[in-house]
Known about the structure:
This protein has helices at 35-41, 44-49, 83-89, 108-121, 134-146, 160-168, 180-194, 207-221, 238-253, 274-281, 307-316, 326-340, 346-361, 382-386; strands at residues 3-6, 12-13, 29-32, 79-81, 94-98, 127-130, 150-155, 172-176, 197-198, 229-233, 263-269, 320-324, 370-374. The chain has 14 helices and 13 strands. It starts with a strand and ends with a helix. Helix 4 packs parallel to helix 5, helix 4 (108-121) packs across helix 8 (207-221) and helix 12 crosses helix 13 (346-361).
Amino acid sequence: LTHLECTRCGVHFDPGCLQTFCHACNAPLAACYDLQAARRKLDRTLIAARPRGMWRWQELLPLADIDRAVSLGEGDTPLLALPRLGERLGMPGLLLKDESLNPTLSFKARGMAAAVSMARILGAKRLIVPTAGNAGGALAAYAARAGLPACIYMPADTPRANVLECQVAGAEVVMVDGLINEAGRQAALRAAAEDWFDLSTFKEPYRLEGKKVMGFELAEALHWRLPDVILYPTGGGTGLVGLWKAFQELRELGWLESASMPRMVAVQAAGCAPVVRAFSQGADDVSLWEGASTGASGLRVPRPFAGRMILEALRASGGTALAVAEDDLWAAQRVLADVEGIFAAPEGAALVAALQALLAAGWLRRDEKVLLLNTGSGLKYLEPALV
């Protein structure tokens, strides 16, 4: 790690102290590394030989002393073939990376492992986050592991399982009338008034770093040849941006065997699709989606803070963005469980519905290697799933 950089104006920030985002640009900060030095000193076979988990990629993560990592065993989730679903769709190269096997049952564990580790090392005494679901449970668990108090602001209709997992890990939970943007507003006010460190999506630089490791693992599992297409459920967008960041870093390291990069696809719910609208309109940034509504709480983000970065990744990759109807999203969850035995969160299940739409539109070829990235477990949504 050499410095932090504003993703809009390029100004450098010191990684040796707590940082949030570039207030001049209202834009996220990105961690930058001396990848040329890493290319001379690092060997991908050395990383492969280390004990499993996210932290085996330590030279490409912000934590200088790996012994100080706050960890619950996150990372190295399985990459699964989907032979029965692939046969049904005529797609023999269909794959799924299943992030539901992380601690706290979602990909949020990766980001919080990195963010909480860095926050503790840099002197944060208590941690706060607004969340519509899985980020809250992940912060509560990792804050408990780190011995730090945590406060979680949640919309009132957050799935009950997400609320309970925060409470059982000792976090203070504040329920909010409104959506995630209102929870974020109230959490920010509390943070400023009482000196809590805010770990909101993209409003600190290190959750992105934990999530980018999904891209490293994916490349390694596929022998350093990336898929043709990656479908990603997009709310705040950290995972999609993290994958794209990982692929850029791997290319600079010279580790990729394939010259082409995956086409990235952002999948949203029809009741909250600000990225889809901005992409289709050719906009540079994402505007607020009024009246956001979907039962997939991780997709109910009316205006992602890193909208510009999401759109840049989609366009640079030659990708696209599309929304799926609410009924199709829940139906796809049952299909994936019935056909492949994978009880995905509705956010991840939405990818199956999107995949069918892209095939029907001719945007995907059936002979392409396509990856679905399931971000969490359907166990967090038992009540709506059983209706």
